[in-house]
Structure prediction request, 396 residues.
Amino acid sequence: MADFFDVVLSQRAYRALRPDPVSDDLIAQILNAAVHAPSGENSQPWVFVVLTDRAARQQLADLVRAAWDGGVREFARQHLSERFFAGVERWATVGFGDTPVQIVVCGDTTACNESLLPSSIFPATQNLLLAAQALGLGSLLSTLPLLAGQQVIDLLGLPPHIRPMGVVSLGWPARPLKKPTRMPFAAKTFRNRYGNPW
Amino acid sequence: MADFFDVVLSQRAYRALRPDPVSDDLIAQILNAAVHAPSGENSQPWVFVVLTDRAARQQLADLVRAAWDGGVREFARQHLSERFFAGVERWATVGFGDTPVQIVVCGDTTACNESLLPSSIFPATQNLLLAAQALGLGSLLSTLPLLAGQQVIDLLGLPPHIRPMGVVSLGWPARPLKKPTRMPFAAKTFRNRYGNPW
Prediction:
């Protein structure tokens, strides 16, 4: 049993994951949490492609690496701190390929109005990340792999109505991470009207 | 203490809420959960405008009602089931105005690349909804109020770089709801490639 607020307040983005496999039973618990998210008009427009096979993961990793080398690195270097950049670089070039589970989270454009996809798909994705944290797994949501564009779509065999929206990397943490630090909510919150302090 | 999976697997969209107030302390716990979500490049681009004042809530409710009457009703009637439509109609015309707390969730376009806003704002919003559930409150995420467009922006005094992305209604449930039913995750999940059953 994991306390709800403990899980939510300790969630971290894990870019350093061990290559050890994750059981189908744990993946199932995580996906079951994901599909219990709310969605626009309860349309449940999510689709998950779960890559556990080594060859499939390596092919996706090769696309991520090519996108990184092909321009994403320079873009990231310009606007990330040195330390943050180093972590992303390790993940994009080595860590991603070693990660035992990649879950490509997609939206089905035939399930609802397309304008409802983000507010439906990302709550489900957050359930997925939190469930991983609750089970002791590390996870990371990234949209970077989607910069490889059509090549990712072809690799996964996605039909035109299934739109990839994010990739969740999942595995056992290489090392524990401390609780995250955040700007306090009061610095981001106004009462009744923008500009009035909370 | 609330068990994580209990909370996640019981979350419901509550359209019937009591008008009784919700304490600032509970709202603070919920917003603190929200800001612990992950965000693109840890940019934390969320902004919350929390409407607790009766006049402010009524003004927003009037805009929602006008948008409903001005075309959203007909659109909704065409593609929602009769029962679902009836619930939304009650909420848009009466329930919304009686709700004690409305939280307008916004994205700050100066905090990160705009393409990262949905994958940052909606995970935080899901934390917000789950935290409400963990505390025994009912909540609802809707993008319908944003159909009132510029009038909502003017009412809240939002500057151009603060984009409203969703509205969370918050209050004590008028009646308890059973656990949600969902399509099983396996019906939405493929292994390694689209089309291969999980």
Summary: The radius of gyration of chain A is 18 Å.
